[in-house]
């Protein structure tokens, strides 16, 4: 009985405060088995919100959302997006990120990195990543092994037979 109000059961007639606005609109979570499903669904929801002139209302409601202490009620992806946004708002000369998109799917990671590189144009971005496809988005790649720098160069220079980066990329 102490936990009776702690579980929110799905109801098509009621808003589920434990779920995101998008999940409430869809009556559940997006299935991640389809390519770019998150982006496609997000675009459709955005289009419908614009057609119905709901964007301002949704933003107002969203900005009033209780996120908990240190964002405890947010998903790890939401917390990561907010952290990156806060860093970009400061317009730093140098931005250093350590696997900042690790919780994102592959296409979201590439879109995020591309967007950050565009936003930071003319400034320095250092991004630690385990993903060769993300590393290829940068003008210079530095490959580390055992805490030591083993090679640096452009993606074209390093993605050749006999290079450490090429070996890593081939394994992924």
Structural class: alpha+beta
What kind of oligomer do you see? single chain
* Helix percentage range: 40-55%
Side by side, the strands of the main sheet go 1-2
Biggest sheet record? 2 strands, parallel
Which radius of gyration do the C-alpha atoms yield?
20 Å
Description:
By secondary structure, this protein is an alpha+beta fold. It is 43% helix and 12% strand. The protein has helices at residues 21-26, 37-51, 55-63, 76-89, 106-119, 132-135, 155-158, 164-171; strands at residues 94-98, 124-128, 141-145, 148-153. It has a two-stranded parallel ribbon with strand order 1-2. The protein starts with 20 loop residues before the first helix and ends with a helix.
Could you outline the blueprint of secondary structure elements for this entry?
Elements: H1 21-26, H2 37-51, H3 55-63, H4 76-89, E1 94-98, H5 106-119, E2 124-128, H6 132-135, E3 141-145, E4 148-153, H7 155-158, H8 164-171
Parallel strand pairs: 1-2
Antiparallel strand pairs: 3-4
What's this, in brief?
By secondary structure, this protein is of the alpha+beta class.
Please supply descriptive tags for the structure shown above:
172 residues, alpha+beta, two-stranded parallel ribbon, two-stranded antiparallel sheet, 8 helices, 43% helix, 12% strand, elongated
